[in-house]
Amino acid sequence: MHKLYTFLFLVFSFSLFAQPRLAQSEKYIGLNFGVTESMVGFNPSVKQGFLMGYNGGFVYRYVGNKYVGVQAELNFSQRGWTEKSGLYTRQLNYVELPFLSHFYVGNKNRVFLNIGPKISYLLSEKVLKDGTTGTDTQHVTLIQNPFDYGLCGGLGFLFNIKGNIFQLDTRVNFGLSDIFSNDKRDFFATSNNMDASVNLAWMLKVK
After folding, report:
1. Looking at residue 7, what is its pLDDT?
2. How far is the CA of 170 from the CAs of 25, 63, 113, 124, in angstroms?
3. Is there a contact between 69 and 116 (Cβ–Cβ < 8 Å)?
4. Which of 9, 44, 85, 112 could form a disulfide with 104 if both were Cys (CB 3.0 to 4.6 A apart)?
5. Hey, what CATH topology would domain 2-206 get?
6. Tally of helices (H runs) and strands (E runs) in the chain
């Protein structure tokens, strides 16, 4: 499955070179802020609901080809999990760097697709709720792999209002690494981050 995601990303990325170049490239900088709904893909499974958090940061976009550009971000992102029992919730705070291919249609106002890899690093973790007996592995073990990487992608709408760019986009993030050790002697075979987000961004075109 991981190989399939990587292949799809490469197909999108290679299409960057198949588009005609713009007469004048476009550069944008801005800020984005939104909410996340996250969980962890535990195997063996742990019954979970979605944990709400926040994310936001800086955006840089370069469009040099018609219909295609690239986008980089520097974000703070809250992830984690909350269990269906209602007894346990842990929040994970990351700094993340997405590197995205940006595909769009339209001129002044646009519909776009962003897709690509991202890398993250755990800044801190916090148990928000613990009413358990403290015996399950995911309750008593601190995060063992602070470095996280994965793929993300989503759709959005961009509006140009008097030179100010406002955009709303949704994004799905799928971790390809695990937060806990996954050696044969470990309890969890997988424990990857998964989350979805909705973000609002304000950007300015740089001349």
Report:
1. 54
2. 26, 20, 10, 25
3. no
4. 112
5. Porin (2.40.160)
6. 2, 9
